[in-house]
Amino acid sequence: MHDEPADAAARRAIVPVPVYSAASLPRPDLALYLKARAGARKRDEILVPPREGRCFRVGAGQFFRITCTEGPQVGDLNLWNAHDLSERFYSGKTRALHRTHLSTGDRLWSTFPGLRPMATIIDDTLAWYGVDEHGCSVHDVIGTRCDPYTQHLLAGTDYHHCCHSNLTRALAAETGLGLSRAEAHVHDVLNVFMCTGFHRETGRYQMKASPVRPGDYLEFFAEIDLLGALSACPGGDCASVHSSDEAACHPLKVEIFAPERPPEGWRPPPLNGYSGGHGF
């Protein structure tokens, strides 16, 4: 430990500012999205079994909904450009542009060099939860996904139904890629329905039982053609454990809806306009 400098209090008292200006961030017109959604018809439905993962495809201008079905259950979501797996969901930049937990009106942004909206959240039945007394909220872009490598590091055991492995198997089955090639495309997730935060004193990442109940859902508008993968987490509602067979787990449902016509004036967002010169 080092002694505090004489001006330690003054340094701590500096008022923080947002890293990125929300005023300059392009915002979706939710009213137009919801108008298009009102006339949409279900095109497909995928049931994700407990402790498993499944892929789904959504066309640009369509909607997809993730629903809690039989009991409290957390899901880990990956998204890719359906035509180019190298463009995928960028949870870190999404967190920086929005916040640690997402809800209605927030967008899921893609990796460099694309850096464009992949999907927009248009409805969230858990938006009422807010931030609780423990500093926790729902639908986080903090956690990376439970994985067999960390499980082995901490417990010394091989567990094959961590969300990372579930997503890997799902992507391999959907695309025909081998496991090793598919695994390279699996990335940090949106933790759908998961209730998490940071301990106010220690700064440790923490989780608690999700407030999700059967019938709750999170719904998105696909800004580009998407390939998605969802894992029904082996932690169930993540009340105490994950990466094990101890928790009660339930299926999750993904529904795809196609509107009669896309939102008025909407076009799929172009790739980011940066020149790519990097100063050379």
Offer a quick outline of the entry.
The protein is of the alpha+beta class and 280 residues long. It has helices spanning 8-12, 30-38, 91-97, 148-155, 163-175, 179-183, and strands at residues 41-48, 53-58, 63-68, 75-81, 84-88, 107-109, 117-124, 136-140, 190-198, 205-208, 217-222, 226-232, 252-258.
Written overview of the protein:
There is one protein chain. The chain is an alpha+beta fold and 280 residues long. The chain has one domain (41-258). The protein has 6 helices and 13 strands. The protein has helices at 8-12, 30-38, 91-97, 148-155, 163-175, 179-183, and strands at 41-48, 53-58, 63-68, 75-81, 84-88, 107-109, 117-124, 136-140, 190-198, 205-208, 217-222, 226-232, 252-258. Strands 2, 4, 5, 8, 9, 10 and 12 form a 7-stranded antiparallel sheet that branches. Strands 1-13-3-11-7-6 form a 6-stranded antiparallel sheet. The longest helix is centred in the middle third of the chain and has 13 residues, at 163-175. The radius of gyration is 20 Å and the shape is globular. The model has no long low-confidence stretch (mean pLDDT 96).
